[in-house]
């Protein structure tokens, strides 16, 4: 019977936005569903806390903390959180949907992995944790169940539900610690403390398990495993799988050191150790065929609450089960979501031979069944085309050559390859090689004598940029046509370079001075010089030019191109102003009044009484400013 159909949330629209389509997995804290965001029309995973826990402030706070913590991380190997909210008794996270399986599914079906595959998987895990550590966050529950391996080849770290900010809340105040016993660092068990080195420890255990097919600590009960964490070192994986390289032993034992001090300081440092160890291994060591899975205790990788008693002994008091995919969903092969490992159908996994290709930046990873099917792309950058083809074909690879321009790589030498140097590729695969054609150069086109707009268009079509435009007189090139370019036509230039253009203003002629002439005389003089005359419709006052004569010309005397138009402005004569009437005023006041109006003043006193009895020109008359007004006083 399909239990998904009995789930009350299937078919329900949560928070008026998320339409739940199917249940993917059920865990101790939450159920994960595949849902559709009806607002953005995209598929996502919805992690819904069990309603019975929604009243527990600690669980709700942990749920919200997960959303906030992961929202701070923008990394291709971290499962993204899009939204967090509540709908009645339902508290949920809207998360990135990842179709595929978990690393636990892979280990359960495959057992030990080749060292190359184990390192390929661990590298993006450390990259994701490194981003978290740089952001001041500790995961605290790293395990294979929380490593999602997408069908598209990406590896992503999920379930940051136990995340804590470094130095803010990494020590339990309740006397218990939450985690998965197989991967808990000793300090988490004994003291309830966790920092970046605790995540590194879990990754060391995880690497041991990938290399050997078994956990380093096994026991009949979780309490036994906890005791081993506290009192027994994680041994070198070569003790379980003879022939593994010493570099792998050192990497595992350093990362999973029982005391924190020898471990790398954080996942970033651990990633550096991994790459250094990998660089020291040969292809034969990396592709060593792993043995069958080692016998060990039954998987018990549940997130567990562990009571600490005086810091000496521990006991398991409660367990939060990891997500289990219901059997009916396995039959229908529902894809998993963040934090939701599933057990794939056995016949499907048996049919898998090679899965997922490695690209660290995008989170893609490769794991494969055997060795000898792949090789590394030899480095051929900057080699000549002939040398590169010889080297690649000598490695048994096909070659497909294309060409492109390059400012830095010499002509006929290799700019790039796809896949790049050192990348894994099938032994009979083809490498795409891009060979330099040398710097891209474009000859400046011949545009002399062409109209400016046509010349600019032709320069742009050639891949160059039309630059500044200067104008100058020229006796032979028509006005508006190009005289020259800089650089000159035929000069090779880089794509996008600017080309300056000089345009002809036509033949230069002297512009006669026609100010003061009548309009008809001015027109005749200008026409005789090869110019045109145009009278402006706005006459102006002029104190020096009589009315109806030319008061201004533009351009003034100087040079213009033959056929240019000279604009003439006609004089309205002198501007007149009304003379104030100052009769009856004392001479001082009358003089001030007239001067303020722009007139000059002469005073003639007849009887020395100081009163104006006459003015000339008389008050009220219209006179140009500057006219002298004579006052008679008595």
Overall spatial form: elongated
Helix content: 10-25%
CATH top level class name of the largest domain: Mainly Alpha
> What is the CATH architecture term of the largest domain?
Orthogonal Bundle
DSSP strand tally: 36
Provide a brief overview of the structure.
By secondary structure, this protein is an alpha+beta fold.
What would your notes on this structure say?
The chain has 5 domains: 3-362, Transferase(Phosphotransferase) domain 1 (Transferase(Phosphotransferase), domain 1); 374-436, 2-Layer Sandwich (Trypsin Inhibitor V, Chain A); 441-504, 2-Layer Sandwich (Trypsin Inhibitor V, Chain A), CATH 3.30.10.20; 508-570, 2-Layer Sandwich (Trypsin Inhibitor V, Chain A), CATH 3.30.10; 576-633, Trypsin Inhibitor V, Chain A, CATH 3.30.10.20. Helix content is 24%, strand content 28%. The protein has 15 helices and 36 strands. Helix 3 (115-134) packs antiparallel against helix 5 (196-212), helix 3 runs antiparallel to helix 8 (267-279) and helix 7 (246-255) runs antiparallel to helix 8.
